[in-house]
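Ticket #507: bound-state structure for adenosine-5'-triphosphate.
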Amino acid sequence: MPDYMFLLESRLLPEQRAAMLRVQELSAAMGFNVYLTGGTVRDLITGATLRDLDFTIEGNPSRLARELEKGGAKILFEDERLRTIEILFAGECEGSLSAARDDYYVRPGTRPEYRWSTIMEDLRRRDFSLNAIAISLNSASRGLLLDPANGLSDIERGEIRALTIHSFTNQPSRLLRAMRFAARMNFKLEARTQEWFELAMERDLQHSITPQDAGDELRAVAREERPIPTLKSWEAHRLMECIHPRLAKRHPDYEAIARLAKVREDLLSAGLRPRLGTAMLNAILGRLQSREQAALLSKAGFRTAEREVALGFVASALRAQKELLSRKCEAPVEAYRFLERLPLEISAWLLAESTKSKALSKIRAYVQKWRPIRMALPGVATELEALGMPRGPRFDGVIEQVFAIQLAGRGKTPEERVKLLRKLAGIKEPPKKKLEEKKKKPAKGVRKAELVAAAKQLEAVKPAERPPAARKAAAPAATAAPKEMRKRAGAKHAKTQKKKTGRRRSR
Ligand code: ATP
Ligand code: MG
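RESOLUTION: The complex was predicted; output attached.
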């Protein structure tokens, strides 16, 4: 029994892990069996980024979704007919909950009837073997991999394999999907799937893709990390016209897509995970006029709210740029606060498209310098606490002041920072320790004091009573110590001279 739980634990982001545990817990309490399925399991196995969590439940997920909602999750979309719910868990973690079902086709190519089923039947009705794998999240079998179509071996071979001869006939949008997965993962179609694909294209099945299904694929390609290979593959297979004839004619704006993809990489290496679906959609449709874009999205079944966000995206990015360039954002700390609130997708689009160097340098500073400074603030707080300031509102105020000063380029070295913290918190510098200074020159200072004291003692004694050796030393009592020092200085001088000559000789 392979245990995929360990893999999950190590690969999930903390917020994804929390979401999974919550779904697991609630399903157990409600008596449903629950599984991780589809893209999540495929990406887990291939090592790809886990973008979202797809859960399949043997039962209706509606009640489970309501419970999750009470805990702060957001329902993005609910398809009651398919019993599928798109959900946003805490921490911006995307996912879906679906009822396990079987799609029953009276005849190939007709609309399917949905029958609520077990997980095994659900996996067998899926598009490709690599998407038909599940991991159990149930207490008796947690971590068990369910792979009835042997998808694991297809992943190892790097192949996309359709599950039945009717796969493309039943759902022609799988033509787009097959090309998308092949391009994304650099996989090829398995030999028989390739034949079925060609046969479907010969029969012009691509023209029976519903606008809704085409819209789902357009949305999906815009969410791809690297959409260009998929778009090129669609173009090469004459599939772009299924998305929209206008797009097939004008082509996606590949330069804009590449610029945005590069920004994504830069942001990832700075530790940010941008979701660029809307910005990328704008880049894909960049060569169409806004009127054409609106018509396309509407035909592709984009919901009104989604359409408004997509069509208004560039305008809102330009508004944000204007604000960033205004006096309101002049001080770095104000610009930081503004950019912190701004959706990362807008910053990403500006990084890719803006021609305003001042706006660009602020966004770059935010990503590369200001965020790291912000993230280091807990360490600064520990330093302030160590200086003796108790935590509280005034403490937080000092930390914020330090942050603002650091954004302006000061207070970065530990010494500067401690000085700054003392000043802002009103903590006095510790008194200069005289003893410490003395410690620095112990031999000279101590010796001098000893000699002066000894000389004074001797002075008090009559010359005749002095020991013969001391008589000489005490004669000019006041100069005894300097003389001693001169003697030592002389020795030192001789030593350095010797060193110097030694060095000269060696040259
Ligand atoms: P992505 O990484 O693009 O999200 P995904 O495989 O998760 O890929 P989704 O569209 O999110 O794709 O669908 C989730 C799962 O639902 C798929 O993995 C697949 O098992 C199943 N699925 C989706 N669309 C179809 C379809 N047209 N036919 C059969 N199964 C499908
Ligand atoms: Mg998915």
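RESOLUTION NOTES: Residues 38-39, 52, 54 surround magnesium ion (ligand 2) (CB under 6 Å).
TICKET STATUS: resolved
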